[in-house]
What we know:
Helix content: 10-25%
Number of strands: 12
CATH architecture: Alpha-Beta Complex
Number of domains: 1
Oligomer: single chain
Distance between the termini: 54 Å
Shape: globular
Number of helices: 6
Order of helices and strands: HHEEEEEHHEHHEEEEEE
Amino acid sequence: MKRHILFASIFAFAIAFCACSSNNEPPTPTTQDEIEAAWPDLYEVTEAGTFVKVMRDTTGMFIMGDDNSTEANEAPAHVVKFSKSYYIGMLEVTQAQWTAIMGSNPSDIKGDNLPVNNIKYSDATKFIEKLNEKTGLTFRLPTEAEWEYAAMGGKLSQGYTYSGSNNVDEVAWYAGNSNDNLQPGGLKKANELGIYDMTGNVAEWCQDRCTAYKATEQTDPVGKTGGYAVRGGRFDDTTNGTNYLRCKARLGMEKSCKFYNLGLRLLLEEPKTAQ
Length: 275
């Protein structure tokens, strides 16, 4: 009889322990916000460097474009929202990273730690295709909207003219301080999210085209007409002072263009642990 009582007590304790353990386990994220909140703020990829989490805006606080600009293609200003967050490269893609994936270096101004340059749009997409195959991740070029949102500091934005400051010398390599040469990434001040060189150094290809803006609110906009968007200004930029170094500044180029001051920055759609 005592054995039966002892066994029943142990069995009851085991059930209670399991129930208690189960209750202490964190709930599995289910909503998009919960899933993305669990992503790390920084994500390291051996072949591509460090990526910064850019939390999406669903509130309508991000205004893309500028109605007060002297550049007609920056108006009308309009609300842009995003259906999901993403990661963007802390630095521009370097020549060492490019060479490790592609086996050669197309850059006109060479240096392993310098941003890769002198690449066409199709060169950038070929590099990304090979990088995706090697890593099992989903990299791509950012859209103009994703690029501008990250450059402006995302949800932490202070509304600066340049990426991270109203003082261009704090955050950018440009004609006024670059000694007419490219510079290694990360030497200037980062923006609000911890991203470097979104103003100056090399201009950066975007995924979509430099399409005329519309005044209506949009979610995940993708430009489909015009030249391919190029953002961020350049280390030798003297056009209209520092006008093209602003976060809002837009240029469109034919996909066959390649210049010594044109490179890329990667967008990573989500970390591998989330897949």
